[in-house]
Amino acid sequence: MKKILFLHGFYASGQCVPALALREAFAGRAEVLTPDLPMHPNDALQFIRELIECEHPDILVGNSCGAFYAQMLAPVVGIPALLGNPHFRMSDFLRQRIGQHQYKSPRKDGKQSFVIDEALVEEFAVLEATQFDNCTDEYRERVWGLFGEQDTLAHFEPLFLEHYNRSFHFPGGHTPTADEVHNWYVPMVELQQVLGAQIQGFSVGQAITAHRTIRLAEPSDMQSIMQVMDAAKQIMRASGNLHQWVNGYPSEAVIGADMEKHVGYVIEENGRIIAYFAFISSPDPTYAKIYEGQWLDEEMPYHVIHRIGSYPNVHHVFDDIMEYCFSHDPNIRIDTHRENTIMQHNILKHGFTYCGIIYLASGDERLAYQKIIRDE
Questions:
Q1: pTM (2 decimals)?
Q2: Are residues 170 and 30 in the same domain?
């Protein structure tokens, strides 16, 4: 079984909300180590190094001060890291908080009080001066940053991007909630492929254990749909698909037009919208001409599936969409971007035939596929 080592923030412990949420999310799939870290940074780094040598984790996941530690250690110990809202200037943060404090979650030794003093601030300041010294070209791709758009404590994405290439956002604050850990941290860990998770559609994660329904989208769903689309874009970028769904596409206007035409659909799981797609009857103007190939059939009416998006921690969404759509029409066409290898894999897996290249109204190229279920 793989191992994840989670490093908590300065005021937290191994029993904090993100730690517990990670353990819950990976139960049965990976062992999540969530130790209480020493308060002093040199002691903490030594403790973490010894724990790594003993436990051999496959990835470091840090939040805030824990991400500060993970960044310094990842290239040294040779394992990847996910940095959640990393705080690279802990000395500035602590200098404003000299005095006695309480940890915000319980620690195993029962000691909940601690003191921030000038000596502690200086320890962090010394480390900060050399914190990026071990960053290498290889680790520009192996250390990822995850930044909360509502974070009011740490704003270090520009500094992160001076040293690393992969930066992602989530719609949360400095300390993620349990839901945000499930929706964002967990998929990022899986996307780094240290768990050998197979990506399907836009989703990696656990099997379906909840009740799902597919229904027409309504105007009141717009905010939830746009959050789904933002999540899908993050997965595209993480998988190397950099040029699809850019410049604000799909916008609220595009989704709203789907709703007006009654072709926009949502998938709900226990009342929560987890995915969106458009299911549109023929003809599709962009499919009028196809290059370097031909459609399986030019005469039959068909439906087109566009704008598939889902959260990255839900599973079998593409399967659900295919089952629904083929129950309404046996002749379906679909297209995707050349960089979207995840979607190409799923399209072919579900029996579609590659037919050729089509061009959107914008002139952008797409790979086109068709599947016809014929009566025996």
A1: 0.59
A2: yes
